[in-house]
Amino acid sequence: MAFLMEYGMFLAKAATIVFAIGLVVGIVVNASHKPKAKKGQLEFTDLSKHYRLQTAELQQRLLDKKGFKQWQKLQQKELKQQSVALPCLFVLEFNGSMDARETESLREEVSAVLAIAKQDDEVVLRLESGGGVVHGYGLAASQLDRLRQQNISLTVAVDKVAASGGYMMACIGTKIIAAPFAILGSIGVIAQLPNFHKLLQKNYVDFEQFTAGEFKRTVTLFGENTDKGRQKFQQELEETHGLFKRFVEQHRPQLDVSQVATGEHWFGYQALDLQLVDEIQTSDDYLMTKLSSHRVFKVTYQLKKGLAEKVGMGSANVLSLWWQKLVQQSWLR
């Protein structure tokens, strides 16, 4: 009898696991067959109010009850004296990946700002990116250029890194500020790929590729690369580098492009000497200087994740935790 009960429990667990796997597979397949446009939500956060509340909380802790009331009255008086509406400062953030997929959110944020911004308003972009694909970062830079075309002042703040495609975006700014040890530059182009032709040849595996057009494919992962193909590929890299240099030169004419377009990167202090940036300052310090003269808002467009993405991320997290536990157990042994 005990054997039958244990066997029944085993079958129930197995059925549950199979059902769960089938449900996840069904969701993924359904999502792949019915593509829907991703929708997101635009959020405006009043940073001026946030900083006022933060300051008030600190003053309440530091002052006695009478002193805090006097401080509150002074603050209320200052707010009333600001009868003329202050200009706005809109804060955007771009934490770029290799494929610059964050450009989709940046597009929405820029469009929202352009819909309400006035000529005396300003945009601050907190930028962090080590670069990535040329077409992705070219589009991201073009989104920022929409602000410049409408004569909206754009300050790009680099606290950590804006290199390669990241610097392509940064140079759009009316002004670039950087933290002392932020990394900037890397105005160059790189491409690399492995070639498995000899490995396939060693294992008697033929690779066939058919193209129309002499340079439809220059270098390949699996075929035998030719000197002519390599030369053409190098030529394309040089052309891309030339476009990159002209783009930087166009937006920062004060910069000696021949000196900095070597693919090297520099820290903030060095970048200031080379005129890659205009000031050494963190984004936090810059925003603090603007609180008295601007109403500061953070603009964020958050893409909503679909059910399949949520399930996939949840499954990945569970598997990651399971693997870590397994590794720990194996080490404990």
Task: Annotate the secondary structure layout.
Elements (H helix, E strand, L loop, with lengths): L1 H32 L6 E7 H16 L2 H17 L6 E8 L7 H14 L5 E8 L4 H16 L3 E11 L1 H6 L4 E4 L4 E3 L11 H6 L24 H25 L5 H4 L4 E3 H6 L5 E2 L2 H8 L4 E9 L3 H26 L1
Parallel strand pairs: 2-3, 2-9, 3-4, 4-5, 4-6, 5-8
Antiparallel strand pairs: 1-9, 6-7
Helix pairs in contact: 1-12, 2-3, 4-5
- CATH homologous superfamily caption of the largest domain: 2-enoyl-CoA Hydratase, Chain A, domain 1
Please give the domain count. Answer: 2
CATH topology of the largest domain: 2-enoyl-CoA Hydratase, Chain A, domain 1
Helix content: 40-55%
Structural category: alpha/beta
- The termini sit apart by 36 Å
Report the biggest beta sheet as strand number plus sense, adding barrel if it closes: 9 strands, mixed
Percent strand equals 15-25%
In CATH's first tier, which class of the largest domain applies? Answer: Alpha Beta
Mean pLDDT: 83
Q: Over the alpha carbons, how many angstroms does the gyration radius reach?
A: 28 Å
Q: How many helical elements?
A: 12
Order of helices and strands: HEHHEHEHEHEEHHHEHEHEH
Low-confidence stretches: 327-333
Shape descriptor reads elongated
Number of β-strand runs: 9
Q: What is the second-level CATH architecture of the largest domain?
A: Alpha-Beta Complex
